[in-house]
């Protein structure tokens, strides 16, 4: 899985998942040649690699044993983690989603990793308990329809999505979309606390935490929910309820395409040509979880925008790990934390291979980006629940 020899990093994750589906164990060699996978040698696996265009090497038993022995040395920052079972994956996504879509569903499809979709009805029926891993599609959990009001309130797709959301909320027994989204957010919170793995990108990151912090408080203006917001709602926000963020200021104007001060989009002044973020390095033996989540063939990754591009560093809770950051701009891009018995990862930005990705843009063709390090971070999270867990030091 290093930069020099792997022709398709993304589909390599798919082959690894495919192997786990066949109840064969895999060793993830952390920090060894870009985070390589040691798979059993079988004709069907070789053929699958060939079909999918994944580079591989055949090792003798002695060679494999020597690699594992070298990795086990205390002198090297490497570790072999056993992957035991293919996680069952759910993507929380609205019906009839638009073509400017979601990086996770694109890369899962490209890597040929199966997933099922769920939405508000399934979440409220506790169907998340059927899954090991949950991704939150580009979503607004605050009931403000993505803060698209100023630019798109007259667009047919915006009007239709608003009407559909209101009809679904009423069908589920709620008078407002914001109330329905809060109920969904609380169910997702309980899923994580109970031991689930949650991954979110772009606006699903901060809007989820804002919804939790604003429980019982009306932060929506009349164009969103038909009535006024609560007076002085900023002072009523409870940061103890969030997963990752603290001390943020909500954006009250419906005409500003922003949820809060968590996001760095409007604050950053970085040219596209120099917009990169770096991955942190962890002890593979003592901190295998963040090490797994940061496996890559490069430590420097191209930045990319989104409604929520990145996170204000001083508004991240102290118990949350910043795994990817732009140090010149003091912003966090990729963060991870523990909530109860479960785990969450937030990744800023919309599409790792489409810098601005505006509404209506065509989808990214991953055949053009088979070695994308930005997309690899997503797939690290997909395989993370398959690992046999060890107690981490951090």
Automatic annotation (TrEMBL):
Domain of life: Bacteria
The name this protein goes by in its record: Asparagine synthetase B
Species: Winogradskyella pelagia
């Amino acid at each position: 899985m290093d930069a020099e020899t792997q022709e398709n990093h993304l589909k390599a994750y798919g082959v690894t998942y495919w192997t786990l589906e066949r109840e064969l164990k895999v060793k993830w060699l952390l920090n060894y040649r870009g985070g390589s996978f040691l798979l059993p040698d079988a004709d069907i696996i070789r053929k699958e690699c060939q079909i999918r265009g994944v580079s591989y090497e055949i090792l003798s038993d002695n060679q494999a044993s020597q690699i594992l022995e070298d990795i086990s040395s205390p002198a090297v920052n490497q570790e072999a983690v056993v992957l035991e079972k293919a996680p069952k994956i759910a993507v929380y996504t609205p019906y009839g989603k638009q073509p400017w879509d979601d990086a996770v569903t694109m890369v899962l499809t490209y890597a040929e990793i199966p997933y099922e979709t769920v939405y508000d009805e399934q979440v409220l029926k506790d169907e998340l308990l059927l899954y090991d891993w949950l991704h939150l599609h580009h979503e607004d959990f605050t009931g403000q329809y993505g803060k698209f009001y100023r630019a798109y309130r007259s667009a047919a797709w915006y009007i239709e999505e608003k009407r559909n959301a209101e009809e679904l909320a009423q069908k589920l027994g709620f008078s407002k979309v914001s109330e329905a989204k809060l109920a969904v957010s609380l169910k997702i919170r309980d899923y994580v606390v109970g031991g689930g793995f949650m991954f979110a990108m772009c606006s699903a990151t901060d809007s989820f935490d804002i919804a939790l912090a604003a429980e019982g408080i009306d932060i929506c203006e009349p164009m969103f929910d038909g009535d006024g917001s609560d007076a002085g709602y900023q002072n009523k926000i409870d940061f103890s309820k969030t997963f990752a963020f603290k001390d943020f200021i909500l954006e009250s104007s419906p005409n500003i395409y922003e949820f809060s001060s968590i996001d760095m989009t409007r604050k950053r002044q970085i040219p596209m040509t120099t917009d990169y973020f770096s991955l942190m390095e962890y002890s593979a033996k003592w901190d295998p979880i963040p090490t797994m989540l940061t496996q890559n063939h490069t430590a420097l990754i191209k930045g990319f925008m989104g409604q929520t591009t990145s996170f204000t560093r001083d508004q991240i809770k102290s118990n949350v790990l910043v795994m990817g950051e732009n140090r010149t701009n003091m912003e966090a891009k990729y963060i991870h934390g523990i909530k109860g018995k479960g785990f969450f990862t937030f990744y800023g930005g919309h599409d790792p291979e489409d810098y601005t990705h505006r509404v209506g843009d065509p989808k990214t063709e991953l055949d053009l980006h088979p070695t994308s390090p930005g997309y690899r971070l997503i797939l690290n999270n997909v395989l993370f629940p398959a690992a046999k867990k060890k107690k981490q030091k951090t």
